[in-house]
Design a protein that fits this description.
Elements: E1 13-14, E2 17-18, E3 20-22, E4 25-27, E5 34-38, E6 45-50, H1 54-72, H2 76-92, H3 94-105, H4 109-133, E7 138-141, E8 152-160, E9 163-167, H5 175-186, E10 190-193, H6 200-213, E11 220-222, H7 227-235, E12 242-246, H8 250-257, E13 263-266, E14 272-275, H9 281-293, E15 305-309, H10 310-325, H11 344-359, E16 363-364, E17 370-371, E18 374-375, E19 378-381, E20 398-404, H12 407-416, E21 419-420, E22 422-426, H13 430-439, E23 444-447, E24 460-461, E25 463-464, E26 467-468, E27 470-471, H14 473-479, E28 481-489
Helix pairs in contact: 2-4, 2-6, 3-4, 3-6, 4-5, 5-14, 9-10
Length: 498
């Protein structure tokens, strides 16, 4: 089994510290400092990465600007060819990258492997899609607008923005990095990646796959370091032409500070699961458990509140309890269903929400249990709107159940949230499903399934505090381009076949 930082990845490690990537090579920061990455399971330092300086960020930005100009002159098919190559290399080296995910973010081993494979597939799909949609422009003629003859031809096409800054989150540090990198590159942009601290080493391994594919130097960079030192410096940098960010509240701060550049932001959710009386209860149960508890609930599209009709609530709660009792709780290496949450501060935050619900009288379907960062799955019944857990996003294996007496009550709770990422509704009545879907103020509504971001070419967007803009491969490519027009003015009107 290939081990992280060895074999083809030996280049990216300097003693104990992983290097950063700039101008086509792996480098040690002049700061002489490093940032520790703590393994959520052992709570010991697992890896170290470079603490890059602002001066190093400036150099990366200068190199990106130069490389982008040459890249914009690279034929589309050639860009696509390199992306396909990177995708194949990524999949070939899935084992060491997955190992990083297991150790850095406590992702269960099989899920870690599938994240890397999915990422390779995403990059290939992006190359295919980009060749199609960027290979097409538009011809407009002037005589469609009143008062004009046909004496002007307007040719419009999509051109690169320049340098894209990509900031992915800890929970999918490879997949949510390539979902920004792929579209940026195929569209002719340069890319600067600032990975999350937890997940940085997996991201560095992923970047090395792009390096091995042979992309021009300076086109892709990956800077690691302390947010306090380079976070604002990156997001407010005059060399940045677009920011794509996935994460939490930090995104709101970024959107206030960023310059006049296009923003693509996905900032979490409080995805509601509305269950009607005619729903298939076994299907509901399976989706509540999968939706609420896979990767210990640390997903922006996790089910985060169940809004269930009173008449079926007892039955569903019993079924969910039985299924939760069968989940394997433990270390990610053992492919446990529930693994430790990412940091101690996350675990403390989740615990605070649980204690608030306890004080206010929620029914605990299991005993609350925590060891270190490991929290056992917990279902809270009879949750009321005065409890924090009814509104806040725990990002952990704790799920509130709110009993409702009408569909309107469920929709009202869903729409009263400051979030609006996804939601879901379970019913056998397609007419009700569509009406509820239309009424829910979320970017996506899933009918008879838990929320999910994939497949990766589906549009993915949040309303309200859940974000700005839309993702999904096609939308990301379009978002990372701007429209350029050339108008041909004829000396006299000319009508085709006239």
């Amino acid at each position: 089994m290939a081990v992280a930082g060895t074999g083809v990845f030996a280049d990216i490690l300097d003693g104990e510290v992983y290097k950063y990537y700039a101008d086509g090579e792996w480098r040690v920061s002049g700061s002489g400092k490093s940032v520790a990455i703590v393994n959520p399971t052992t709570r010991q330092t697992q890896y170290r990465v470079q603490a890059c300086t602002q001066e190093e960020v400036n150099k990366v930005m200068d190199a990106a600007k130069v490389a982008q100009k040459a890249w914009a002159r690279t034929p589309l098919w050639k860009r696509a060819e390199l992306l396909h190559k990177a995708a194949a290399i990524l999949k070939e080296h899935k084992a060491p990258i997955a190992e990083c995910l297991v150790k850095e973010i406590a992702k269960p081993a099989k899920d870690a492997i599938s994240e890397v494979v999915r990422s390779g597939d995403l990059v290939s799909y992006t190359a295919e899609e980009g060749v199609r949609i960027l290979g097409e422009g538009k011809l407009l003629v002037s005589d469609s607008f009143p008062g004009n003859e046909r004496n002007k031809y307007c040719l419009s096409s999509k051109v690169p923005l320049g340098v894209v800054l990509a900031i992915p989150p800890f929970n999918y540090p490879v997949n949510l990095a390539v979902s920004k990198i792929g579209p940026a590159l195929i569209a002719g942009n340069a890319l600067v990646l600032k990975p999350p601290t937890q997940g940085a080493v997996a991201a560095l391994h992923m970047v090395h796959c792009f390096h091995l594919a042979g992309f021009p130097k300076g086109l892709i960079s990956c800077v690691t370091g302390k947010g306090s030192e380079i976070g604002d410096f990156l997001t407010m940098h005059p060399g940045v032409n677009c920011i794509s960010f996935t994460g939490g509240d930090t995104g709101i701060a970024i959107s206030k500070k960023a310059g006049m550049v296009p923003l693509q932001m996905e900032l979490g959710g409080k995805d509601a699961c509305i269950v009607l009386e005619d729903a298939d209860l076994d299907l509901v149960t399976a989706n509540i458990v999968k939706g609420g508890f896979s990767y210990s609930g640390q997903r922006c599209t996790a089910v985060k509140v169940v809004l269930i009709m009173e008449s079926i609530a007892d039955a569903v709660v019993e079924k969910v309890k039985a299924k939760l009792a069968k989940l394997k709780v433990g270390s990610p290496e053992d492919d446990s269903d529930i693994t430790p949450v990412v940091t101690e501060s996350s675990a403390n935050f989740i615990e605070a929400l649980v204690m608030d619900a306890k004080e206010k009288g929620a029914t605990f379907c299991q005993e609350y249990r925590r060891e270190g960062n490991l929290i056992w799955p917990l279902l809270l019944d009879h949750v009321r709107p005065d409890m924090r857990i009814a509104w806040e996003e725990p990002f952990g294996p704790v799920l509130p159940v709110i009993r409702i007496n009408s569909v309107e009550e469920g929709i009202h709770h869903c729409n009263a949230s400051n979030f609006g990422l996804q939601g879901c509704v379970f019913t056998k009545d397609i007419n009700k499903a569509i009406m509820i879907s239309d009424a829910m103020e979320t970017g996506t509504v899933q009918i008879n399934s838990a929320p999910a971001r994939g497949p990766d070419h589906f549009p993915f967007q949040g309303l309200k505090d859940s974000g700005i803009g839309s993702q999904g491969i096609t939308n990301s490519i379009n978002m990372m381009t701007k429209v350029k027009s050339t108008v041909i003015n004829l000396p006299s009107p000319s009508y085709t076949m006239g």
